């Protein structure tokens, strides 16, 4: 759905100070997000994660759409003490749009 992807690209502006996607994306304040949908949590090479984020991945947690939705709705509530300094996206439609947008970027 092109309208959903266009909305997702717009919503991603709220993330882009810390996260990059696309060709030549690099880690910054946050890890690059190419291939994030359905990737094991906390496994972008070269990024230094918080302990809760690293532990979640070591425990086998995957960023499927449901986990991404819950994390983006309330980052600190979903994963206490993770280090993403972002209040979250209150609107379910914005979360769905940005997740659909992220899914267009493979590894
Ligand atoms: C981690 C998405 C906004 C900083 C993550 C992860 C995702 C994500 C999926 C987990 C990455 C992984 O497991 O490899 C998003 C989205 C955003 C957003 C979609 C906007 C809607 C931000 C902002 C900042 C930020 C604005 C900086 C102020 C971080 C940091 C981590 C992280 C530092 C690592 C957390 C840790 O190790 O505990 N983000 N993020 N993010 N994000 Fe964001």
Main pleated-sheet profile: none
**Ligands, deduplicated:** protoporphyrin IX containing FE
Overall 3D form:
globular
| SSE ordering | HHHHH
Radius of gyration (CA) equals: 13 Å
Distance between the termini: 22 Å
Total individual domains:
1
Q: In what range is the share of β-strand residues?
A: under 5%
Category from helices, strands and their pairing: mainly alpha
CATH superfamily: Cytochrome c-like domain
CATH topology assignment: Cytochrome Bc1 Complex, Chain D, domain 2
How would you state the average pLDDT, rounded? 98
Assign the CATH architecture. Orthogonal Bundle
List low-pLDDT spans.
Answer: none
Count of DSSP strands:
0
CATH level 1 name: Mainly Alpha
Proportion in helices: 25-40%
Number of helices: 5
